[in-house]
UniProtKB/TrEMBL annotation:
Cofactor note: Divalent metal ions. Mg(2+) is the most effective.
Domain of life: Bacteria
Lineage: Bacteria, Thermotogati, Thermotogota, Thermotogae, Kosmotogales
Protein name per the record: HAD family hydrolase
GO molecular function annotations of the record: metal ion binding; phosphatase activity
Length: 257
């Protein structure tokens, strides 16, 4: 399965680490991919941090910076806005560092009369912010969100993610997002395949969520692997699934030798 693979795309939360701890086999997996001469790219739906913050965290956890690259749904959302809604005014839900990333990228952020509203994983969310967001959604302003994950896995258990906030907005306004940018949309993975000059048959997608990571890989038509180190449990797997299943990255490394 791993012969002639040039691009390994991995989820982070629940796949490579959990909270502030690397999962079994994670560092060995990164080293193995590097020794193959292939690229390792972390594609995370978690938009509560910037690429630089993720790189800093991985290095702190002991992963050499030359072994990987990182792409987030926040970056993908910025790219989507610039390509599809250039020079539009945005009301944004985001943590301060991601808000600065949007501004640095040339996105005009406003508190009143936006052309569209954008929801990322805002761990600084307040009632005032969500109330204003819902007001704009009720007025029919186009609604963009970075990803649909309902929960984010942590060492202490799952915590509410953007999908939970989407449900809140829908319950209040009757509207769901007009655009969901991150996984499972195949476009985000196909974009990485192009950016890293790879081909679908040379690409592997690995993650722990059936409805985002695995669905994304299947939609894009690449080799897809589910790991049981995060959200998905063995009783959630259908009979004869169209993807491979491993306990964790440690088991994958063993099969690559």
């Amino acid at each position: 399965m791993f012969e002639n693979k040039r691009l390994f795309v991995l989820d982070l939360d629940g796949t490579f680490y959990l909270g502030n701890k690397l999962l079994p086999g994670s560092l060995e997996f990164a080293e193995k991919v590097h020794s193959m001469g292939a690229d390792l790219v972390f594609l995370t739906n978690n938009s509560s941090a910037t690429k630089d913050e993720y790189v800093d965290k991985l290095v702190r956890l002991g992963v050499p910076e030359n072994l990987f690259d990182v792409y987030t749904s926040a970056e993908a959302t910025i790219r989507f806005l610039k390509e599809n809604f250039p020079k539009k005014r945005v009301y944004l839900l985001a943590v301060p560092s991601v808000e600065k990333l949007f501004q640095w990228s040339g996105i005009e952020l406003v508190d009143e009369k936006p052309d569209l509203v954008v929801m990322t994983y805002d761990k600084t969310l307040t009632y005032e912010k969500i109330e204003k967001f819902c007001d704009f959604v009720r007025l029919g302003v186009p609604f963009v969100t970075s990803h649909p994950d309902i929960n984010c896995p942590t060492e202490k258990g799952p915590i509410p993610d953007v999908g939970s906030f989407i449900a809140l907005v829908e319950a209040s306004t009757g509207r769901r997002p007009d655009y969901v940018i991150g996984k499972p949309n195949k476009e985000i993975l196909e974009m990485l395949i192009r950016d890293f000059d790879s081909k679908k048959e040379e690409t592997v997608m690995i993650g722990d969520r059936l409805y985002t990571d695995i669905e994304c890989g299947l939609r894009a038509g690449v080799e897809t692997i589910l790991v049981l180190s995060g959200e998905t449990t063995s009783n959630m797997i259908p009979e004869d699934p169209p993807y491979h299943v491993y306990k964790n990255l440690e088991d994958i490394v063993k099969s690559m030798k």
